[in-house]
Amino acid sequence: MNVKLIGFTPDPEKLPAMAAKLTHSKTKPEDLDKSSDKELKNILEYVMNLGHTSVIEHTNFTFAISDVSRVLTHQLVRHRIASYAQQSERYNQFFEKEINELKEQNEKYKIEKKRRKECKLSLGDEYRICDEYKGGSSSIELGEKFNCNPETILNILKFHGENVRGNNESVVNHNFFDSINNHLKAQILGVLFADGFIGNYNENYLAGIKLQESDKEYLESMREIIGLKRPVYCFPSKEEKYQNLYQLSISSKRIYSNLKKYGIKKGKRDPPKNIDKEFLNSFILGFFEGDGSIGKCSDYKYWLTFVSISHEFLEFIKKAIDSSCEVNNVKILKKKTAYYLSWQSKKDIEKILAWMYKDINLDFVMKRKFYKSCELYKDIDNLRKRLILERCNQYNTIIPDSILSNIRASDIYMNAQDELTRSYITCCGMGVKAEDSRFILPQSFKTNIIVTMNARSLLNFFALRCCLHAQWEIRQLANNMLQEVKKIAPTIFKKAGPACKSKGICPENKKDCPLYPK
Ligand SMILES: Cc1cc2nc3c(=O)[nH]c(=O)nc-3n(C[C@H](O)[C@H](O)[C@H](O)COP(=O)(O)OP(=O)(O)OC[C@H]3O[C@@H](n4cnc5c(N)ncnc54)[C@H](O)[C@@H]3O)c2cc1C
User: Using the 8-state DSSP alphabet, how is residue 289 labeled?
Assistant: First the structure.
């Protein structure tokens, strides 16, 4: 929230003082400004104490208020003795870049011209065919939809330079793992090292991963990131005490070969090959999401553990953590058939988590483990809050502290914000005017407003909105405004504030309030 006093009546206290003097003297109004400053100040103090506040209506203050929610402005504009100008959601198009991209795409589909005279379909249809094919539709489905032969569809795709898929190949970004050149890819590779698989079944090259039901959202995000159009499959659990399992599987020779190149194979895993040091933290985070655990069993007992059947693999993780996190030396232990790499010092664990999570993207994180880390470690929770605030900034929305500090509530809140923003952009992209699309925007949407109030109206505003029972955002606004005007008109606003302070009464009758008049 930004609050700036951008204008006010010149001599804001002299004018009402002259008006007050007029009511009690025979001096002509045009001569009142000849009165001494001291006399005018005394008169103003006197009438303010009497509560004869109509004279301060002669003084106006104008504030520029930005980055507040519509929740706030709904409340603010209930104050009728004021003038307002608010940023329009009709004349301003938000998310312009994303909307223009969508519009361009939709415009493309409307092109009626044909590539050649004898073509059956318009160029617009051909562009749509290419996009829908890339989106997962088959040439047979598209042939039925556009009433033509699948061969024609394939010819159209070839003409437009689209890659035509092999028979069994998935619709996916086949080049995704060509190089691990960002944190997201390193993280996905890490989780594939823990729980992924590859296989070649009669020239059908597969890669995939199977996780429990509570991680379905994580799998869905992975699916979206790698551009896989095939849904994740459910393997229902045979016993009630176990969760269903979900599998994401990709048919792609290129992805299969790339994963093999990095070191994914059947059974025991060797340390990965060709992972840039810069992305090691995210690779290890991915592995932790698959085969790591974190927890607390008493006030003093914490753990962060990696498990693998490969001693070398854990050696690799230990070396990477030791060289980046300055933590105590720990030993890799063997229990039955697996090896365990575990830290128990709270300080060490926090350092390792901070390093692993430092480059995460909220769109792809295993929430179960991330939220546990946030619950146990303040630094990690601060990281979560920072990422959410950044995302709210992109969505142009305000998030209340009570939601931000509640891990589950903020998750619900952010899902809603994602959905609403996406829907607004889609509607605008379809050509629905901003004045109608804005019906989708949330009340948390940021807005800017200019407000002018006279000093008397401001006193009423402060009495109502500086009160501890006023809603937090408008209370913050009122307190900021009060600070500004006090600097300029100290006599008028000497007693300004919540009604308990300015009037000595509590209109809310909240006896448990710390400010309740004694
Ligand atoms: C804690 C809190 C909770 C609230 N909850 C709700 C709610 O649930 N629902 C809701 O609708 N509103 C709610 N309000 C808003 C409240 O009812 C007022 O509309 C708002 O605070 C503006 O106050 P106001 O009328 O004093 O201010 P202004 O509109 O600026 O008026 C200033 C003063 O001028 C006088 N005045 C103005 N217009 C008239 C008029 N037409 N007739 C006679 N006198 C007039 C009154 O003396 C008034 O106090 C809430 C306000 C607060 C502080």
Answer: H
| DSSP secondary structure, 267-285, as one string | SSPPPPSS--GGGHHHHHH
Q: Is residue 7 part of a domain?
A: yes
Q: Kindly state whether residue 36 falls inside one of the protein's structural domains.
A: yes
Q: Into how many domains does the chain fold? A: 3
Pocket test for ligand 1, best of 56, 77, 80 (most atoms within 8 A of CB): 80
246 and 213 co-located in one domain? yes
Distance 79 CA to ligand 1 centre (A): 6
Whether 196 and 305 map to the same domain: the answer is yes
Q: Which residues have C-beta atoms less than 6 Å from ligand 1?
A: 78-81, 457, 460, 464-465, 469-470
Residue 164's alpha-carbon distances to 133, 134, 156, in angstroms, are 9, 9, 10
Catalytic residues: 465
Write the single-letter amino acid at 265. K
For residues 492 and 13, the answer to whether their CB atoms sit within 8 Å is yes
- Shared-domain flag, residues 216 and 319: yes
Residue of 53, 81, 473, 500 to test ligand 1 pocket, by largest number of atoms within 8 Å of CB: 81
Residue where a domain stops, chosen among 336, 357, 378: 357
**Contact (CB, 8 A) for 55 and 23:** yes
Query: Is there a domain that residue 106 lies in?
Result: yes
- For the chain (518 residues), the mean pLDDT of every run of 10, in chain order, is 96 94 87 90 92 94 97 97 93 87 89 88 93 83 91 92 81 88 96 92 90 93 90 86 90 92 83 90 96 86 93 94 90 91 93 96 93 94 96 96 96 95 93 92 96 97 94 97 96 93 85 80
Range of the domain at 128: 96-159
